[in-house]
Design brief:
The chain has about 120 residues and is mainly α. Helices cover about 90% and strands about 0% of the residues.
């Protein structure tokens, strides 16, 4: 192997090593921070939005219809998940991944606006 070839191999190998190390370091921070952040959220009383929604439905539904109300909630959530996944998949395939994410982000903004409106009442 010539001197130039050795340098090329070393440069390419070092570049790959730096790329791999950067990739792992990029993901290490959020992964290491997730456990302490979760513990802090638990201490502050943060709860899953799904559990809060189920608790709200259980509190508002008449006692004899509570099980049916929770079943209806689960059905509505499942159908919403199916519809969102189907439309996002079609957009991802037919248009672009960016279009799928934009579609889902628009629904999240609408849900957040609805939550803000409901919280003010």
């Amino acid at each position: 192997m010539t001197g130039v070839r050795r340098v090329q191999v070393l440069v390419v190998g070092a570049g790959r090593a730096v790329l791999a190390a950067g990739h792992h370091l990029r993901h290490a921070g959020p992964a290491l921070a997730s456990v302490p952040a979760g513990r802090i959220a638990d201490r502050l009383g943060a709860r899953s939005p799904v559990l809060v929604l189920a608790a709200g439905v259980a509190a508002l539904a008449p006692k004899d219809l509570r099980g049916s109300a929770l079943g209806l909630l689960a059905t509505a959530q499942s159908l919403g998940d199916l519809a969102a996944s189907t439309v996002a998949g079609i957009l991802w395939t037919a248009v672009s991944p960016s279009a799928a994410f934009a579609y889902l982000a628009a629904w999240m903004v609408l849900a957040l606006a609805g939550l803000g409106t409901a919280a003010r009442r």
